[in-house]
Amino acid sequence: MANPNADPTKARQAKRAKRRAQPGTLDDARALLWRALARAGDILDGEDVEDATVLRALHGISQGAAAYARIVEVGELEARIAALEAASGDDALTGGPRLGRGAA
Predict the structure, then answer these.
(1) Is 90 left (phi over 0), alpha (psi -120 to 50) or beta?
(2) What residues contact 14, with CB distance under 8 A and at least 6 apart?
(3) Which of 38, 59, 93, 102 is the least buried, fewest Cβ under 10 Å from its Cβ?
(4) What is the pLDDT of residues 56-87, one digit of tens each?
C-alpha cells in the first residue's frame, strides 16, 4: 500500500533527480567526443563495410570534428578569460563599462 501522506509528485521528482547524471566538464566532453571520432574512424577502416555505413561514419566524423573544434576553442577562451581576470583584478571586469544617460 502506498503512503497516503507522501506527495507522489515530489517522490517522482526526487527519483528523477537521483537518476540524472551530474553535468560533465568540458574535458569530459572533449574526451568523449575524441573517443567517438576514433570509433568512427575504426568503422571506416574496417573490411566489408557497406556504403551506407561509410556515409554514416563520414557524417559522424565531420559533425564530431566540428563539435570537437568548438569545444577546444571554448576551453582555450575560458583559459584566456581566467588569465585576463587574474591579471587585471576582479573590479575591472565585473562592472563593465559605465555609460551615461545619453550614451545608449
Answers:
(1) alpha
(2) none
(3) 102
(4) 888 888 888 888 888 889 888 999 999 998 88
- Mapped onto helix, strand or coil, the DSSP state of residue 3 is coil
User: What is the residue type of 32?
Assistant: L
Residue 7 CA to residue 13 CA, distance in Å, equals 10
Angle ∠(49,53,54) on CA atoms, nearest 5 = 75
**Cβ-proximal residues to 78 (8 Å cutoff; 6+ apart), any chain:** 26
Tell me what pLDDT residue 80 has.
93
Dmax (CA) of the chain:
70
CA distances to 1, 15, 64, 76, 79 from 84, in Å: 60, 42, 30, 12, 9
